[in-house]
Amino acid sequence: MSRQNCFIKRKVTLAAAKDILLAKIRDGSAMTGREQLRLSFLLCLPAILAQFSTILMEYIDAGMVGRLGAEQAAAIGLVSSTSWIFGGFCTASSSGFTVQVAQRIGAKDFVGARSVLRKAFTSLLVFSSCLALLGVAISGPLPRWLGGGMELWNDASAYFAIHMAFLPMMQLCYTTGMMLEAAGNMKVPSLCNVLMCLMDVGFNYLFIYGMGMGVKGAAIGTGLSHLLTALVMLWFLLERSPELSLLLDHPHANAEGSADESPATPRDRSFIPDEDTLQTAFGICGPMWMQNIVMRGAYIISTLIVAPLGTIAIAANSFAIIAESFCYMPGYGMEEAVTTLVGQSVGARRKDLARRFAHISTAAGAVMMTVLAVLMYAFAPQMMGLLTNDGEVIALGARVLRIEAFAELLFGVSIVAYGACVGAGDTLMPSVMNFASMWVVRIGLALVLTPRFGLVGYWVAMCIELNVRGLLFAWRISGHKWLEKDILKKEKRTIWRRQRKTV
Fold this sequence. Notes:
This protein is mainly α.
């Protein structure tokens, strides 16, 4: 057999193994610890590839802009925390629907999963469009509000305004990818993220250098990359997904081989959001919105703390955050996998299995991030050198990166454990924990240490806070309360009460 045929056979075998193991969750079959670990890695490896491509895209943006000068890099760094808070609202809103989809798939209610999918598109399009209008409206005064110098105002405002204009397309990109992941398909989103990375390189080169647009070109390139990637994933989701393709609900569709137990009703095929779906979505994403406000709001406060330190400190802080992202990409990849696994396990009424998935995935994510932390400590100057050629920025950024290396183990615990909680629909208590950790520990220490030790003091505060957060989440998933919320049971109870009132 040729090497190419062996490779193809191995790809088919891995895909079949993933589907077989996911079916075991839905069918109530027993799973060994080895099978759980294998399934966790089969799902997380494509997600890690997707994270890698996303982070690489950030590197490309930062590196290309960094070559323009420290001021241009600082302009993007100044508004990046505000961009994160808007993006966080989008991802949190998507989670409110994707968790419902994952749990319905786990319960083998595929018609119900597609019904939620339809309503998600309508709801999230309206939501992200309103956010985009708000973002564009505040783009002018935002750099002044954040304490940036006058030399940064024009570039920072332009970059933020363009970034916000593309927000609905970014929302679509997040949602389609998360829906495919909820169904257990990590391969397509990861490949699409690689495609997005490649497009970003081309668009950035065209707009930043070819057309001489500078910082504005970076925002346009990123936005167009999200747009085209979203359209590719949307086509696959609606046309090709075995669980979520809307063609399966067509009145004349051939149901042969379909896992659906009942045909879709006109109400199931409606794109108009209903009260039950929206209430459930808000119950999940409401606490995540609050967490986004307090977490990303804390990042904005951090920007205000760092901004008076000057252009070099702002640029070093921004580039160091991007460089560190290589360290936590396996954590976020494992987070996406465990959200799917816990969500489908809870939907299948297998909370013992959900708990084991949470523990195995959290340990694996923490180990992988620790290994990368060692490499980050060793090669910190080289990592910063990829982003800028300014010697002062490289030296300061490498110094703070080495401080942060000591936080990655427990940071990995907090990332993956949070994903497990989201899969179970447990978002309120984790949001409270994140709030206390960020605002009390990080901001409190930063206010004391930054004036005395500059950017180094801020990163020491960050390192301590991430370790505290990891310990809190390790405590959370070691108990049982995070698995007590039952979304599907609550929905059925609500529908039954309404039916009684109608009668």
